[in-house]
Write a structure and sequence with these properties.
Blueprint lengths: L17 H8 L6 E3 L8 H10 L7 E3 H24 L14 H8 L6 E3 L9 H12 L5 E3 H10 L1 H10 L1
């Protein structure tokens, strides 16, 4: 067996803050991290992080530098996603489909009433925020999205349609 398949019905725990991750990686508690000091369990993450940050494995990073790199990588990811949407990409083309609806509601339906409002969806860079107005206008235009409405919108996205036809 080569691992567990992705199951979007199961929601992941919220990611730890960069500060909490830094604290885990700073095993000698000197206020900086290096590849050599982290545990073997966290070494692959640290090596990959240093590589993506254009740092040599022999370098060390302070918490301030680590946070700056995390923010910079987040901005670059968001810019790439926005560029893809402007160039004709869509939410389904980014790997989203109807099976992701439980996670979307777990994350955005803050009051648990089964409806995502404009206010709840207003997190910058989120696909729900990007598509809220479009999906709402394509349904009943009431300023709210139900699970059924989101599922229907994701099923109507062209890339999802192609994936559904291809799997039959």
């Amino acid at each position: 067996m080569t691992g567990k398949p992705f199951s979007p019905e199961k929601t992941l725990q919220p990611a730890k803050s960069p500060e909490a991750i830094f604290e885990i990686l700073d095993t000698n508690e000197d206020g900086s991290i290096s590849v050599d000091e982290v545990s073997k369990k966290h070494r692959p993450y640290t090596i990959d992080f240093f590589r993506k940050a254009s740092r040599a494995p022999s370098d060390s990073l302070t918490l301030e530098q680590y946070n700056f790199i995390i923010q910079q990588q987040r901005r670059l990811r968001q810019q790439a996603e926005r560029r893809q949407v402007r160039q004709g990409g869509n939410i389904a083309g980014r790997g989203f489909g109807p099976r992701i609806v439980p996670q979307m509601f777990s994350r955005f339906d803050k009051d648990g009433d089964g409806i995502i409002t404009r206010k709840e969806a207003s997190q910058l860079g989120s696909p729900v925020n990007e598509y809220f107005d479009k999906w709402d206008s394509e349904t009943n235009g009431d300023g709210e999205l139900t699970r059924e409405e989101v599922t229907a919108r994701l099923e109507d996205e062209p890339a999802v349609q192609g994936a559904i036809r291809g799997s039959n």
